[in-house]
Amino acid sequence: MLLSLIKILVFVAAVAGLTWAAARLTDVTGGAEIAMAGYEVTLGPLQLVLAIALLALLGWLVFKALGLTLALVNFVNGDDTALSRWFSRSRERKGYKALGEGLIALASGEGDTAVAKGRRAERYLRRPEITSILVAQGAELTGDHKTAESAYRTLVQIDRTRFVGVRGLMRQRLAEGDTATAMALARKAFELKPRHVETQDTLLRLQAEAHDWSGARATLDAKRRSGALPRNVARRRDAVLALSEARDVMDDTLDIEAREKAIEANRLSPDLIPAAVLAARSYLAVGNTRYATRVIRKAWEAEPHPDLAQVFAEIAPEEDAQARLKRFSTLIKARADHPETRMLEAELLIAAEQFNEARRALGDLVDTDPTARVLTLMAAIERGRGADDAVVRGWLTRALTAPRGPQWVCENCHNVHPHWEPVCSNCHAFDTLGWTRPTESGTTLPRGTEMLPLIVGGGVGRAEPSVPALRDAAPTASPLPAHEAAAKAPEPANGKPVDEAEIVETDPSARPEKTEADAMAEGRK
């Protein structure tokens, strides 16, 4: 309000001043005479002032006209002028408007619109480092891989966006299944941004799939140094890579290099079961049983596993059942309550013909954890005790449909593998296999049916059972020699061995008087 009042007062004062000046000029006598080219012009005081003002205005207009002419000349020559800046601002407004609309279309899932707006923005802005990203992502959204590849190649040519272009091309090659080109692009992206986590993971996975273990270890070391991986996880994965490298070398020849890599893998991660197995066998290859025993014991203390027991048995393959039971006592005492330890002890006692002790070793596993292996051992125990054939058949019937127990399961896709591998064969994830129970009953089973001849009555030199279900009944390898256990197993009380065919016999006349349900009930007792 006060400002408006001041403006009004200033305006009134200006008008009053001009009026007073005009009145004073009117009262002044005399004037000015201007003679030019034979003409004379006489101007009064007021007319003189108006003429001066008019000349000043005319001079200003001439000056502006000259400036505009000069600007047009510079504009035609391509120089930076006010006119060119005006057109540039107009293009920028249109370009950024198109860019914003393209980003909105991209977020809305409208790939075609995003590509069109990106191209329009490029036409106005001429900034491919921005617009090409929009075009590439919009083209990927619509499945136009050719347009996306062209946009990524444009980004590769610009220093600021070279990594984005290489990464985009790498992802395209991965989608096409061209892993060789994808690995080369991943290496280039890794050189441009060594601390980029996704690039590190992609390169590591591709190198592992290609069995480039030395390159994968270098990538893993860079990942650890960048802080993207905890030290303990990096150490375990380094052990996995060293183990994989040792396995590949051993496929060709068991030389010093292979043994050193196997031992290094075990040193990096003593609880990695495959590394412990390979390291122990490397020591056994040179006759160093003491170090092999120490490696197995340390791994067994961390996690009992049937493969460890198998290698531990290989330390003294010619020993008798009693000597083996005594030597295995160190493993049994280390993790006495673990289910694997209890099953191992039961197998050893069965081989030593101590069937009652074998039943006590199993304890309550029959009720708390009735896996196929536990039930198969129960069938072996009942056979050793001289139980009826129907009792043995009852336990085997349960074993055929029982859970298989822990297996090598991928933590990422839950695929079951018969053996440990560094890379999942299903989802190609690296270091995701763990010895655990599958979420669902799988059909892929671990190796080994050495206990079956003992159960079904095979003698020395007998072939493996021909019934597929029986071959799968024992999910892990026993550390006992099959022929030795079979030779020591006593026959049933009736003196007739049980043949494989008898287990699946369906003729009622061939069955004993007890029903199968009664036999299974007796077996549970």
TrEMBL record:
It comes from Limimaricola hongkongensis DSM 17492. GO terms for cellular component: membrane. The chain crosses the membrane at residues 45-63. Residues 508-525 have a biased composition (Basic and acidic residues). Its main location: membrane. Residues 477-493 have a biased composition (Low complexity). It comes from the Bacteria. Pfam families: HemY_N (PF07219), TPR_19 (PF14559). Keywords: Membrane, Transmembrane, Transmembrane helix. It is found in: Membrane. Residues 471-525 are annotated as: Disordered. Residues 33-143 form the HemY N-terminal domain. InterPro entries: HemY_N, Mms48, Multihaem_cyt_sf, TPR-like_helical_dom_sf. This is HemY protein.
